[in-house]
Amino acid sequence: MDIFSAIFIFFACALLGILLAVLGLIVKIYSGKSIGNPNYPPVDGTVFHHECYTTDVRNIEHILKTKFDKYVKGEYMMDIIRDLFGEGIFAVNGGKWRQQRKLASHEFSTRVLRDFSCAAFRRSAAKLARIVLEISKAKQSFDIHDMLMRYTLDSIFKVGFAVDLNCLEGTNKEGVEFMKAFDEANALVYWRFVDPSWKLKRALNITSESVLRWNIKVIDEFVHGLIKKKRRQLFKYHTTDMKEDILSRFLQESEKDPDQITDQYLRDIILNFMIAGKDSTANTISWFIYMLCKNPLVQEKIHQEVEEFINGAKNAIDINEFVEQITDEKLEKMHYLHASLTETLRLYPGVPVDGRTALEDDVLPDGYKVKKGDDVYYLAYAMGRMPYLWGDDAEDFSPERWLDHSGVFQPESPFKFIAFHAGPRICLGKDFAYRQMKIVSIVLVQLFRIALADENRRVTYRTMLTLHLDGGLHVCALPRFQG
Ligand code: HEM
Ligand SMILES: *[C@@H]1O[C@H](CO)[C@@H](O)[C@H](O)[C@H]1NC(C)=O
Predict the structure, then answer these.
(1) Which atom of ligand 1 is nearest to the CA of 101?
(2) N or C: which end of the chain has fewer CB within 10 A?
(3) Burial status of residue 423 (CB atoms within 10 A of its CB: 0-12, 13-18, 19 or more)
(4) Pairing of strands 369-370, 461-462
C-alpha cells in the first residue's frame, strides 16, 4: 500500500466518523428529545464531560450570584493554568479566593493607588503619543494593536512595581525579554485547552511544554528578583511614608503577616494582576480604535467631548502639558466616551466565553437540569449580538443606546452586559481598566484623526480564550495640530 492510499483511507475514515457523529446528533434532535425537554439542552455534551451553553440572563445571575458557592472554577481549568498562575486569585476557589479578594479589593479602592495609576497611565500615554507622532510625520501606517500591547505592559509594570519596563521604546533588553516570555507563556497555557496530550508533554519536558517551562522560568526569575529588591529597599530605609505601587503595598501588608504572605504568594498575586489586566485592556482599546475608524462620526463626537472637558485640549501641542490636565474628576464627566467604550465591550467582550462547574445537581431558572460536575458556560460575545437582549439594532455600534435624553450614562444589569463578569467575582480591575482606556483614548483622539490603513482588509478575531485581533490593527494617524 503506497503512502497516498494510506492517506486517502485515513481521511475517508475520519470523514465517515464525522458524518456518523452529525447523523447521531440530528437523530437525537429530531427524535424530539431536545425540543422542549429541559433534560436535553440544544447543545449537549462532549466526549469527556458534559457542558451546556446559555445566553439567558436569569441563568447567568443564578450561577454567578444566587448560587455562587455551588458554581466554581473547575479542576479541569485550574489544572491547566496552575503552572503559570500559581495560587493567585484567578486560580483558586473558596477561602483562598475570599482572602485574596478582600486584600486586593481594599488596595484597589484606595486613593493612593488611584492617583498613582492615573499618573502612570498619563505618562505612558504621552510616550505613546510621541511615538505615533513621529510615525505620522513620516506618513507611515503602523500596527496600533502591537503598540497598545506594549503600552499596557509598561503601564501595569509601573503600577505593579514602580518599574519602567520601556517596552514601547524597546530600549530595555530585560524588558523586551520579559514581554516575550510573558506573551509566549500566556499563549502556550491557552494551547493546553485544545491539546489533550499536554500533561504527557509536560512530564517528558518536550515541544511546547518545554518552551512553556523555560518561559515560566524567565518570568519567575524576573519577578522574584524584583520582589527581593523591593524587600531589601523597604527593610533598609524602613520609611513610614506610603509606597505607591501594588507590590510595595502588599509587602507592607506582609510585615503584619509574614508567614502567610511569602515571596511565592506575592509572585502569584502580581502575576495574576498582570495577566488579568494587560491583554484584556490592550485588546479592548484596539477594538475601540477599530470602531472609531468604522464610525468617524463617533470619533468626532469624542473629540468634541474632550475639548469640552479638558483645558488646553484645543491647542495640545505640548503633549506633557496636555496629559497633565486629565484627572479622574474630568474622566467621570465624560459620559459619551464612557458609553463608547462600553459599547465596544458589548460587541467585543475581552473574554468571549466564560463558565463555571457545578458542585452539585441543580435546576437552572429556565428549567434545564444540571448534574454535578457539568460545566455551564455563558456566551458574552454572542449575547452582545442578540436582538432579544439589545433590540433590532443589536449588531450596530451605537454609544447612544447607553445614554438618556440628557446624555447621562445609564448602566445595564451586569448579568446582561457581562464583559466584566458579574457577582462576587466581578472583575476587580474594572474601574482601573476604564481609567486607562479613557486616558489613552483621549490622548489619541485629541491629537490624531485615525483611519484604517486598508479599508478592504478584514478585521476579525483570533480564536483563543481572550478576544485578540487576528493579525493586529493597521492604521494611519493624521496629526490634528501642526507643531
Ligand atoms: C477591558 C478590560 C478588562 C476586561 C474586559 C476584564 C474582564 C474580566 C472578566 C471577564 C473576569 C472574570 C474571569 C473569571 O473569573 O472567569 C475578570 C476578572 C478579574 N479581573 Fe478583569 N478585565 C479587564 C481588566 C482588568 C484589569 C486592568 C485588571 C487589574 C489590573 C483586572 C483584574 C481582574 C482580576 C484580579 C480578576 C479576578 C477577580 C476574581 O476572581 O475575584 N481586570 N476580568
Ligand atoms: C527541559 O528541557 C529544556 C530543553 O528543552 C532544558 O533546558 C531544561 O533544563 C529541561 N528541564 C527539566 C526540568 O528537565
Answers:
(1) 41
(2) N
(3) middle
(4) unpaired
Mean pLDDT of 5-23: 88
Residue 52 counted as an annotated binding residue: no
Provide the 10 A C-beta neighbour count for residue 453. 15
CA distances from 93 to 70, 77, 200, 376 (A): 11, 12, 26, 17
Gap between the Cα atoms of 123 and 128, Å rounded: 9
Q: Is 39's C-beta closer than 6 angstroms to any atom of ligand 2?
A: no
Is 365 or 21 the better-scoring residue by pLDDT? 365
Of all ligands present, the nearest one to the C-alpha of 342 is 1
Of the candidates 371, 402, 408, 403, the one whose C-alpha atom is nearest the C-alpha of residue 384 is: 402
pTM of the model: 0.89
Domains defined along the chain, listed by start? 41-479 (1.10.630.10)
Alpha helix segments (H runs only) across 162-245: 173-191, 198-204, 207-237
Q: Residues 104, 106, 112, 116: is their CA dihedral positive or negative?
A: positive
R_g of the chain, CA atoms, integer Å:
24
